[in-house]
Automatic annotation (TrEMBL):
<feature type="active site" description="Proton acceptor">
    <location>
        <position position="35"/>
    </location>
</feature>
<dbReference type="GO" id="GO:0005737">
    <property type="term" value="C:cytoplasm"/>
</dbReference>
<dbReference type="GO" id="GO:0006098">
    <property type="term" value="P:pentose-phosphate shunt"/>
</dbReference>
<feature type="binding site">
    <location>
        <position position="66"/>
    </location>
    <ligand>
        <name>a divalent metal cation</name>
    </ligand>
</feature>
<feature type="binding site">
    <location>
        <position position="66"/>
    </location>
    <ligand>
        <name>substrate</name>
    </ligand>
</feature>
<dbReference type="Pfam" id="PF00834">
    <property type="entry name" value="Ribul_P_3_epim"/>
</dbReference>
<dbReference type="GO" id="GO:0019323">
    <property type="term" value="P:pentose catabolic process"/>
</dbReference>
<feature type="active site" description="Proton donor">
    <location>
        <position position="175"/>
    </location>
</feature>
<dbReference type="InterPro" id="IPR026019">
    <property type="entry name" value="Ribul_P_3_epim"/>
</dbReference>
<comment type="similarity">
    <text>Belongs to the ribulose-phosphate 3-epimerase family.</text>
</comment>
<keyword id="KW-0170">Cobalt</keyword>
<comment type="function">
    <text>Catalyzes the reversible epimerization of D-ribulose 5-phosphate to D-xylulose 5-phosphate.</text>
</comment>
<keyword id="KW-0119">Carbohydrate metabolism</keyword>
<keyword id="KW-0479">Metal-binding</keyword>
<dbReference type="GO" id="GO:0004750">
    <property type="term" value="F:D-ribulose-phosphate 3-epimerase activity"/>
</dbReference>
<feature type="binding site">
    <location>
        <position position="33"/>
    </location>
    <ligand>
        <name>a divalent metal cation</name>
    </ligand>
</feature>
<dbReference type="InterPro" id="IPR013785">
    <property type="entry name" value="Aldolase_TIM"/>
</dbReference>
């Protein structure tokens, strides 16, 4: 499977957001990871549709929208209209996960399901055929810059084994605490879409993207 790097703009300098996204794009980022937080499912509030529309002008790279939002089905059409290419919803937030995933695909987007660190993989049992990507949170969602949760490794490994056993090439995305130390470990466990916030935007963006991409070859 192809390994892909998805810099999380939550860690960017919002004063120069477009420029930093362009820098990450030109250095070789594959996706742009966009964390939408509602202050309900997670304590923090980040940004919404107007910001996504604006930054759409900065890059043609795939917009990977991670919705940390209660009842996210309320906003699917809006984010599709703003330029999202992929929408990932938390299983913990959806009363009708199967329907929500279908709606995302009907909008012509890639559909993702996110699981918190404490949420079991069994939440995926009956929706894998409607899921393009599983996002395994490797920190508790809500903030950037947190430490990687070790038990995630076994969860990634188990999920990859289950997908392989079913002949599925579903992407496994990991999000939270990914850096030069944890990256080789999550890749080895079977993750292939790598979100990195502080490890990309904390410091020299171009150098960080290039080094992380090199480690993913
Ligand atoms: O979804 C998220 C937080 O809920 C972010 O994508 C994640 O925290 C990335 O930040 P870092 O790489 O600094 O941990
Ligand atoms: Fe995220």
């Amino acid at each position: 499977m192809k390994n892909l790097l998805a810099p999380s703009i939550l860690a960017a300098d919002f004063c120069v957001l477009g420029e930093q996204i362009r820098e990450a794009d030109e250095a070789g980022a594959d996706y742009i990871h966009i964390d939408v937080m509602d202050g309900m499912f997670v304590p923090s509030i980040s940004f919404g549709m107007p910001v996504v529309s604006s930054i759409r002008r900065a890059t043609g790279k795939l917009f990977d929208v991670h919705m940390m939002v209660q009842d996210p089905e309320r906003y699917l059409k809006d984010f599709a209209a703003c330029g999202a290419d992929s929408i990932t919803v938390h299983a913990e937030c959806c009363r009708h996960l199967d329907r929500t995933l279908q709606e995302i695909r009907e909008l012509g987007l890639r559909a993702g399901v996110a699981l918190n660190p404490a949420t079991p993989l069994s939440y995926l049992d009956y929706v894998l055929d409607k899921t393009d990507m599983v996002l395994l949170m490797t920190v508790n969602p809500g903030f950037g810059g947190q430490a990687f949760i070790e038990s995630s490794l076994e969860k990634i490994r188990t999920l990859r084994q289950r997908l392989d056993a079913q002949g599925l090439e579903t992407d496994i995305e990991v999000d939270g605490g990914i850096n030069r130390k944890t990256l080789p470990r999550v890749l080895e466990a079977g993750a292939n879409v790598i979100v990195a916030g502080s490890a990309v935007f904390g410091g020299d963006i171009c150098k960080n993207v290039k080094e992380l991409k090199e480690m993913m070859k």
